[in-house]
Design brief:
By secondary structure, the chain is of the alpha+beta class. The chain has one domain: Winged helix-like DNA-binding domain superfamily/Winged helix DNA-binding domain (Arc Repressor Mutant, subunit A, Orthogonal Bundle). 62% of the residues lie in helices and 12% in strands. Strands 1-2 form a two-stranded antiparallel sheet. Strand 1 (63-68) and strand 2 (71-76) form a beta hairpin. One of its GO terms (molecular function) is DNA-binding transcription factor activity.
C-alpha cells in the first residue's frame, strides 16, 4: 500500500490536470515549445489566462520554461507527463 503522502501528491497532480484550459495547453505543448503569445493565439484564450494557467502548471511541475532571448518558451516537463496525457487521451478515444 502506498503512503498517504504519496497518494496526496498523486491527487494534487490530477487536480492540476482537471481544468480544460490547462489540458488544452498541455495538449498543444505535446507538439513542442511555445511562448505565451503563441499559446494564446492558437487556443483563442487571453494571454492573461494562459499566463495564469502556465504558472499553475509550472508550480505543479507539469511544464517547464526556458528563456530564449526575451521570450520564455514553455514545454512539457518530462516524458512521464507526455505518457500520462497520451494514455489518458487514448483511453477516452476508445470510449467515444
Amino acid at each position: 500500500m502506498h503512503s498517504k503522502e504519496l497518494l496526496s501528491g498523486v491527487a494534487y497532480f490530477y487536480k492540476n490536470l482537471g481544468d480544460l484550459t490547462r489540458l488544452r495547453i498541455l495538449d498543444l505543448l505535446l507538439s513542442g515549445e511555445y511562448c505565451v503569445g503563441d499559446i494564446s493565439s492558437k487556443l483563442d484564450v487571453s494571454q492573461s489566462a494562459v499566463s495564469h494557467q502556465l504558472r499553475t502548471l509550472r508550480n505543479s511541475n507539469l511544464v517547464k520554461a526556458r528563456k530564449s532571448g526575451q521570450m520564455v518558451l514553455y514545454s512539457i516537463a518530462d516524458r512521464h507527463i507526455e505518457t500520462i496525457l497520451r494514455y489518458a487521451t487514448e483511453h477516452i478515444k476508445e470510449r467515444i
